[in-house]
Amino acid sequence: MKIIANADYVKRKKKSRLSQVFMCAPLTVWVVALILLPLLYLLFMSFMTKGPMGTVKYIFSVESYIRILEPEYFNVVKKSVFIAAISTLACVLVGYPMAYFIASKKKISGTLMLMMMLPFWTCALVTIYSFVIMFSNSGLVNTFLMKLGIIHEPISLLYNNFSVAVGMVYELLPFAVMPMYSSIEKMDKSLIEASKDLGAGPVRTFLQVTLPLTKPGIFAAVILTFIPCIGYYMITDMLGGGTTMLIGNVIYNQFTSARDWPFGAALSCILAAVILILMYVYTKFGGDLDDLGA
Amino acid sequence: MSDVNEKVSDEVIVSLLNVEKWYGSNNVVKNMSMKIKRGEFLTLLGPSGCGKTTTLRMISGFEEPSAGVIKIENESVEMKEPYQRDVNTVFQSYALFPNMTVFDNIAYGLKVKKVPKDEIKTRVEEMLELVQLKGFEKRRIDQMSGGQKQRVAIARALINAPKVLLLDEPLGALDLKLRKQMQLELKRLQKKLNITFVYVTHDQEEALTMSDRIAVMNGGIIEQLDSPKNIYEHPKTKFVATFIGESNIFEAAVNEVKEDCAVVGMECGRGSILPDDVSLGDNIYVSVRPEDMRFDTESVEGFNIKAVVKEFIYIGNITKMVATLSNGDEIKFTRLHTGKLPQVGDVINVYWSLKDGIPIPTETAAELQALKNVKIG
Question: What is the reported pTM?
């Protein structure tokens, strides 16, 4: 009796395993064909040699990686990291109070989140263009200030590092607010009451209880804004106006106008490596990859 | 049932005067006045939604009363923030800080007050010993069991030597056995430290076990504030009689008041009670505990209540008997060990000792008050 039951169990287990394989198949094909293979190809390409007229010679070389260390490019990498770091910091500083506010307004938090997500769902190209219209030399802000007589000639609000950073924050704020919102919302509010009950004022309560307990959300927000920041080339292109070159723009140029695929691939691999290291650090600090929506 | 704590003084430590709480148009605490004495174990007992937790939260400062005065040691505190009041709370969900060790949790209040480190250390150790958690200092909160977390929460509150300790259903999440053990321990702690405890629960047995006094709450008002013995043996309202233990309630009219007894007429027949507290023509409820219900095959002087035995229910230490009255109502008996048991379907004569038939006014002052408030709202 027991043996029969056991055999039955094995059969059922086999069957369920088979169905698991079938269910996973589309995802597996997707990941392998569209993510894993292209990345491997990129890695392979980064170790090749540039040929004349944008061709690629299939000869092994590390020349592309050495070229990254040239000051011209290395400065771009440094600047990219710097602007991404500044933008990330701004996102967290602006996003945390926002997330806290949304989480504390239980009844309307859904609506508030929706309002925050709307620009995020709008095509980034459109939102960035609206930025240009607002802040260009003949844009709304300058015209308004000149009409009021506060300024006499347009001040250049666009095409500098600052405008790039502001554009990044504008585009990436939802990525920062979402994980912080979810960790603030998840926090047991009676902990705040407990802290106050034990004599701690609002500042101390925030620093000793709220902040440490929402740290995972802040970590996730940092990762989720820093990674796109470092790779975004469209914002730099449109708000930096060619004066600000970041790593994303250099990569874009290598694959398009410069037609140096091995060098572009090498830069991409470096970027991917930076991101992987960041993810590793994140998990080491106790972060959960699920919180990133990954 | 606990005996009365001798350490309770007559000095009032917390007083509520005409306190009201409204959430929008919902009146959860109605014109409540209450005096809590120093060193007593007072329980707010009632069904969920009766306003007991709201009352507690108004004392701790997490809710602001809509009207009325709350005084702690003769000082009005309505406008004070929770962190400015000398009271501490043990929360229902414990609310221990998961980012801190057991030691840091207990030391939190002292650190806030900037007590010197050495003193914090000795006092935390004392506390851990008091709640029997010595050696757990370095544990993380998620490594503690429910009962241990409970002890940490109590220690964290008590270390601040509060004037009043407020406990919001602190044993609700524990299993029955642990709960009984913690009940006794809490009572022991309270007596030992002589701190005033205000305890919120919906568990009547818990309230009877631990309290010096119980405030039975219903619909935002205190129905009765009295010692456990008086609450059980002399309920003042129908609600108290039915919420605390079981009661057989008879609607009755006082037909005759004699020197040694009063005769009451009921739908199901005629019974007798003590003549004190009633006068001729009163409409009352007569409440009789199931363990005080008697029956006989012969009719008993002063009583004329007939019932048909419906069923016996075995619940371990006692057997319950249910019988149906002539008007269809069911009555319960629990003390069956005397005499011969009847059979299902037998007709019995129901009676009780005069002192066990407790008269309760049909419309108490409290109920009238509640009705008035509803009309205003």
Answer: 0.77
